[in-house]
Amino acid sequence: MKYFLVVIFLLTIIYNGLLFYVDSHMDKKDYSNVYNNSHVVWSSRGLYDASLEQNTLHSFKKAFNEGFLGVEVDCYYSLEENKFIISHAEPKKNMKPTLTLEKLFLELGKGHYFWIDYKNLDRLDEETSLKAIKRLDKITALDNLKERIYLEGSTPNHLQYYAGVGYKTLFAFGPLRENNVFASISSNFYKMIFYFYDMSAVAIQYGSIENPKYGKKAEKNLKGIPVFLFHIPNDTTLLKKLIEKDDVRVMLVGRDKSVNRASFLKSKL
């Protein structure tokens, strides 16, 4: 018991020491190059009537035509084909892709923003990641598109490959819900990881209205860090509250269904 208490005491000192260091240096971070537009709400997988239409050229085109400036796109990098295949489910081998990032960027890339949910980023080794980056460099060269894409992943060491060559990266994590006794420790822990790996922004699933993951505790602890929120309940009161928060840069409304909230603009409600 004595040794256990000593370990807890030492861990507490280390935790608070790291937290103090991160908080004292966080204000020096510059996030002016992270998306900060009045068009906060983006479209998740485009606008669609049936599930088979999501992540298609038609759904993305429809979203942009409705006024969305950005869309969230699910994709996998295929080493065999050296292509980024757009799909929510992992593509089967030898299956001809219906849409690739290259085609999407050629057709709709100009002037638009893209949140890339990079489904297999965390499973690629360094060699494969470097090949993927080389391919991504090629397909984002047109219209300075590299400045308008955000790559989402949950492992910082994999995201570093892309951040190191100038790509904007989203650190995806799930803090504990607001009513959990360890909620503050959870969001502070992820904040420390975010700081030391020098990523662009964080991507967080909002959670429920009654007990959110991005609640008061997470909002307070992550203050100053650009936040991309997803799976936000389609509730007008909640959206009005979230959209005016300075740290909330992008919002995806709804979960596994198409929601058109393109008319929600910051400071114009």
Topology:
Blueprint: H1 2-26, E1 41-44, H2 57-65, E2 70-78, E3 83-86, H3 101-108, E4 113-118, H4 126-139, E5 149-153, H5 156-163, E6 168-172, H6 183-197, E7 201-205, H7 216-221, E8 227-232, H8 236-243, E9 248-253
Parallel strand pairs: 1-2, 1-9, 2-4, 4-5, 5-6, 6-7, 7-8, 8-9
Antiparallel strand pairs: 2-3
In short:
By secondary structure, this protein is an alpha/beta fold. The protein contains 8 helices and 9 strands.
Structure commentary:
The structure is a single chain. The termini are far apart. The chain has helices spanning 2-26, 57-65, 101-108, 126-139, 156-163, 183-197, 216-221, 236-243; strands spanning 41-44, 70-78, 83-86, 113-118, 149-153, 168-172, 201-205, 227-232, 248-253. The protein is of the alpha/beta class and 269 residues long. Helix 1 (2-26) crosses helix 6 (183-197). It has a single domain, classed as TIM Barrel. The protein contains eight helices and nine strands. An eight-stranded parallel barrel has the order 1-2-4-5-6-7-8-9. The mean pLDDT is 92. The longest helix has 25 residues, at 2-26. The chain is globular, with a radius of gyration of 19 Å.
